[in-house]
Amino acid sequence: MSKISKNISLETWVNDLLAQGKYAFALNALRKEFDHLSEVAIKFSLKRLVDKGLIISVHKGYYLIIPPQYKSKGILPPALYLDAFMKELNRPYYLGLLNAAAYHGAAHQRAQEFFVVTSFPVLRPTLKKGLKVNYISKNNLLTNLIEIRKTEAGYLNISNPILTAIDLIQYAKRVGGMNRVATILNELMESIKPESIRSIPIKEIPITALQRLGYLFEMILHNQNLANELYTLLQTNNEVFFRTPLKPSSSIKGFKTDEKWKVIINTTIEIDE
Description:
Number of helices: 10
């Protein structure tokens, strides 16, 4: 972006960005454009725009521009700014869990919170205008299982259906427990293609999570096709199953174990229709 005229106000600059389809800006970029202004003058101008509801800070040094259609909410849907924001932080990412499930057909499972998977170090969750964005850190984001979707603001990385299913199992506690996970999987599995199961990099995923997923596919959701694909993949790679609880945080004493998947059935799964 070229240097602007000294006669242009910060508000005009922000509105020009919005007219170009840009919904956010970094403070460093603003400083370069307004290098003729003092730090005090920039902070004063930013505060004035915040007070007018034209911008909001969602991270230190990063501001969203609020267009008229979102002014009543005072915040943007993360899908409109997440990609640009994570690029500003130089972070790999994808939208996952409940939010990805909604993109793949589990529409009535729309969440009030957003779940973004990224690398380390851990990012703190943000809560702005009632909208919470949670960040989950992983060592490996499994890029071969990430899809890129077009949005009105650009692009968005989301987990594909099988990665979404695996993450739901791994982070079941974050989304309301195993019953909720099974309910979401009941809708999501229609979008899971057998070939995507074959592309799972199983050395990068806890086998216990795949055991639970296979058990749910076969014994709860009665999808023998997906269960067989997953079981065949694990057996082909000579993976050894160890007894693992269906609900990790609960007692395992006195509960039966599924012989095939070696899952200790220590909770009753009920799917909400």
